[in-house]
Amino acid sequence: MIVLFFVALAACKTPQMYVTPELLxxxxxxxxxxxxxxxxGRSLSFGEYSTGxxxxxxxxxxxxxFFVRFQGMKEKLSFQQFDHSGQxxxxxxxGKFRSTELPVVHDYFxxxxxxxxxxxxxxxxxxxxxxWEFLLYNPDGEAFRKxxxxxxxxxxxxxKVTGISALQEGKSLSxxxxxxxxxxxxxxxxxxxxxxNGKVWLKEELPADLKLVLASLSSALLLRSNLExxxx
Length: 232
Prior knowledge:
232 residues
């Protein structure tokens, strides 16, 4: 369920999660369309980015170990992410792992996990030639009580995902994350707000491929709460 926050602010504006000034001053604020009342089979959009129809399952795959390891999972979604030029990424995600599946996740990502609430997947560009894998091992900000949420990685790059629990006005509403910031080599390059309708920020001077990757991860995180199947 999408968490809605109603806060009485002096300016009577919808609250926004905190975004570092460096990123805020070098990016557009992209409002998300299609999230409220979202159902499987529909799509999301923000700025020049849009998804195709979101499917509750994986309808195609590549020779990627992630898919081989997790083919048996029931709770999963897939979609295509497009930019304004028509370039696309195939996005596959899975969440709320069963206890019996956690050892597989541990082995694949080589990281110690403590909860079943992990969220993992892949972003595939150029017909399988460029693959990014992501894992959120602290997706809600509760398991470890710190802002280290996870990562997205390729063969050459590692982008840290940190959780944000403060508002731009300096207030904090909850221990849970209001959204996430993406950090490459110590510098913020993007962010996604997952409260209310959602917002996305992408650093202006980033290469188009990297922007598409971050847009894909942002869409997956916005859709995460819409995974409808329950796990035991």
